[in-house]
Design goal:
Blueprint (H helix, E strand, L loop, with lengths): L1 H21 L2 E9 L12 H15 L2 E6 L3 E6 L13 E5 L7 E5 L4 E8 L2 E8 L6 E9 L2 E22 L2 E20 L17 E6 L3 E10 L14 E3 L1 H19 L8 E8 L2
Parallel strand pairs: 4-14, 7-13
Antiparallel strand pairs: 1-2, 1-12, 2-3, 3-5, 5-6, 6-7, 8-9, 9-10, 9-14, 10-11, 11-12
Length: 281
Amino acid sequence: MKTLVYLSLALTFFIGSVHAQEFQGIATYKTQRKLDIKLDSTQVPSEMQEQLLAMMKKQFEKEYTLDFNKDASLYKVVESLETPTVGGGGMQIVVAGAGEADVLYKNISENRLANKSDIFGKTFLIKDSLPELEWTLTKETKNIGEYTCFKATRTETRTVQSSFSSNEEEGTEASSETTEEEITITAWYTPQIPLGHGPGRHYGLPGLILEISDGTQSILCSKIVLNPKDGVKVEEPTKGKKVTQEEYNAIMEEKMKEMRDRYQPDNRRGNGNSFEIRIGG
């Protein structure tokens, strides 16, 4: 009897491995972000606030594709949206994160990533290892399209930075605040596609991630094409200055500081107020 049980388990594992080797495809995802931003109405007119929030909402409604095979995936934006700007008044929006030219390659078999990122006219190639993500698996299920998905969660600590500068006749004052917050990331994955891929920097579950949310941003799969007739090419990006993730973060912070200094009003520009809204990064 034990021999039959062992044989059955071995056969199931073998069939699952064969299916995983055969899987390749293209998944399409759409992103949304909740915005809860309050600005001083004495400094920012209500009409400008509405315009600002509308443009920021549009900026975060993007569409991505995830090309994948059994070993690696390639995540990139497919919809071109205008970068939000607000003319005059010293208003500047800085959205740190994936730009339209960014490409994220993840190789889960070799535990490494390559991220081509364009910031401020320069191209960087971030090459680093994939950290191990500690997921908690649950038995809770729901259907997304034709796929049965299981719920998994993990926690993550993020740093949030905000800054404000103002210029009065007496001089210029500036202040900034950095805080850390712990968030819960909830993912829904399907064992029907038994590959550990997912959108963005989410991966490591026993099935393709079809939906993920951190309470603020949500990413939902809207379409999957498995084993297309023309095949799937998952090519690792090679162009750009090679840096580690830590080096890239330091470069990004320096660029943000330069931008804050550039848009900070001074006595030569007269009275005024300058805001920076930074999301991500």
